């Protein structure tokens, strides 16, 4: 019934910080960018392989509940060739990462970092 994920939607609070993080630091390419006057927000569509990330910039969105974790989407994970190389690149760009560990079930390396609004992002081999 389902082939692949078409897109994932992320809400950010600060246009400059969010766009800089996802485009300049993480390297996602902008497909489309639209200011939606009726909502006073931005919608930036980013390429992530064959999928898209919809980055909404909403000024007064409520803060994310992290601890304790709430129901719903827990985090977003990206497959990478090398967690060690990706961690090094992220750290060089000023993005802090958690210690690398092994996934208990796959035995693959993985770690987490956070976007400017605290959304957990994972890299996984």
Automatic annotation (TrEMBL):
Q: Where is the VOC domain?
A: 4-125
Q: Which UniProt keywords apply?
A: Metal-binding
Q: Source organism's superkingdom?
A: Bacteria
Pfam families membership: Glyoxalase
Q: Fetch the SUPFAM superfamilies from UniProt.
A: Glyoxalase/Bleomycin resistance protein/Dihydroxybiphenyl dioxygenase
- The protein here is known as VOC family protein
Which species is the source of this protein?
A: Blautia stercoris
């Amino acid at each position: 019934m389902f082939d692949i994920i078409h897109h994932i939607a992320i809400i950010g609070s600060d246009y400059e910080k969010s766009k800089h993080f996802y485009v300049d630091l993480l390297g996602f390419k902008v497909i489309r960018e639209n200011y939606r006057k009726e909502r006073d927000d931005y919608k930036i569509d980013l390429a992530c392989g064959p999928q898209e990330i919809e980055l909404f910039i909403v000024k007064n969105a409520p803060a994310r509940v992290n601890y304790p974790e709430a129901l719903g989407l827990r985090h977003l994970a990206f497959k990478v060739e090398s967690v060690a190389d990706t961690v090094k690149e992220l750290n060089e760009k000023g993005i802090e990462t958690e210690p690398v560990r092994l996934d208990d079930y796959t035995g693959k390396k993985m770690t987490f970092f956070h976007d400017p609004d605290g959304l957990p992002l994972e890299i996984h081999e």
